[in-house]
Amino acid sequence: MPHIALRDAPIGSETSTIKQVAINSAGAIEQVLKFVATWAGSDPEAVNVAPNLDFIDRSLSPQEIVGLVQGWQSGAYSKQTLFDNLQRGEIISDDVTFEEEEDRIAEDPSLIPPPTNDGAADLGNGAAADDDDNTDE
Predict the structure, then answer these.
(1) Which portions of the chain have biased composition (kind: Low complexity) (predicted)?
(2) Per-position DSSP letters for 53-105, written without gaps between them
(3) C-alpha separations of 30 from 21, 40, 48, 54, 71 in Å
(4) How many domains does the chain have?
(5) String of DSSP letters for 83-97
(6) Rounded distance, CA 84 to CA 100, Å?
(7) Are 49 and 63 part of one and the same domain?
(8) CB count, 10 Å around CB of 81?
């Protein structure tokens, strides 16, 4: 059987070992805390230890975020693809759906709407309209 150096092993195998250690440790801590809860007269079933199993930093750099937004703005991919990548990059929480984020955007008055085809933002209050439309009589 050939010997594989740890540095040559796939990242998945490294994180799976760490993940298993975290899960086992959390289980042991939970058992101890349940014992303490029983001893203190509390409900041991209320004790739950959930380890953080996210060991790889997947967050996006500011440059990567700008690149993603520029790609979307240029029409290289859909808004859903932009959303998926921002979610994978830990900018948008995993528990937020695309539809929920769309609703948040629509409901937030502090956000500037995306540019229209002529490059001006449609502010909905006539701010992007031609000056000819705003004549005083």
Answers:
(1) 117-128
(2) ---S--PPPHHHHHHHHHHHHTTSS-HHHHHHHHHHTTSS-TT--HHHHHHHH
(3) 14, 15, 6, 19, 46
(4) 2
(5) HHHHHHTTSS-TT--
(6) 13
(7) no
(8) 13
| Residue range of the domain that includes 52 | 12-56
- The answer to pTM > 0.90 is no
- Same domain, yes or no: 19 and 43: yes
68 CB-contact burial (10 Å; exposed 0-12 / middle 13-18 / buried 19+): buried
Is 64 in the same domain as 104?
Answer: yes
Q: What's the pLDDT tens digit per position in 47-89?
A: 999 998 877 777 889 999 999 999 999 999 999 999 999 999 9
